[in-house]
Amino acid sequence: MKNEELQTKVIIVDSNAWNFLFESNIDLFSSTFEKFRFAITWMIEKEMEYLFGKVEKRELLEYYCKYRPSMDCMNKRFGFYSENPPGGIQRYVGFGQGQFVPEKESELLIDKLHYIGSIKKTLLFNNETDLDQASKAFGRIYILTKDFKKNGPLKGITNIIKIPDRRLSEIELLELLDKKYDW
Questions:
Q1: Cα(130)–Cα(128) distance, integer angstroms
Q2: What is the pTM for the complete model shown?
Q3: Strand partners of residue 162
Q4: Tens-digit pLDDT profile for residues 134-145
């Protein structure tokens, strides 16, 4: 990994943040955001896939699909095969496919596991995506989300970029992203 990549701030775009970006008409390819790397997790990708085929979400999905290929996708964690995972979706992968979990991430996963609820239509558990994001949000990795108000895995996480209840221009979003960092 290049030194510049080590200095780059990574922004995980939560599934609810896509609505905000779309409604604000934010161009993630704009040079305004060149100092950031935008990412999603495999669970966010799964939540977005659930929207395909919904006519009322067509424009949002077109917007998402425009940026998705250029985004980092955070892989599943290394773990062991489960005989009957919920919805048939394996949460872990084997050697050469998944990443080992840093100790800090593992501790947070264990500490906030009690927030996981019943299975949703997306075949993920309630709060499972938020827990996955929360466990990754340390160091230079931040989460862009609206879910900071509710009680759940994201509560108390310091690397949260809180989406306001209004549209922002690209410059206003840049200021919001910059405000969260120690440059």
A1: 5
A2: 0.81
A3: 145
A4: 888 888 889 999
Closest of 156, 173, 155 to residue 164, by C-alpha: 173
Both tokens assigned to 53: 């085929």
Element housing 77 (H / E): strand 77-78
Residues 6+ apart with CB under 8 A from 93: 75, 76, 77, 78, 79
pLDDT band at 50 (very low <50, low <70, confident <90, very high): confident
Q: Is the pLDDT of residue 118 over 50?
A: yes
15 phi, psi to nearest 5 deg:
-60, -35
Check pLDDT > 60 for residue 104: yes
| Chain center to CA of 177 | 15
Burial class (CB in 10 A: 0-12, 13-18, 19+), 93: middle
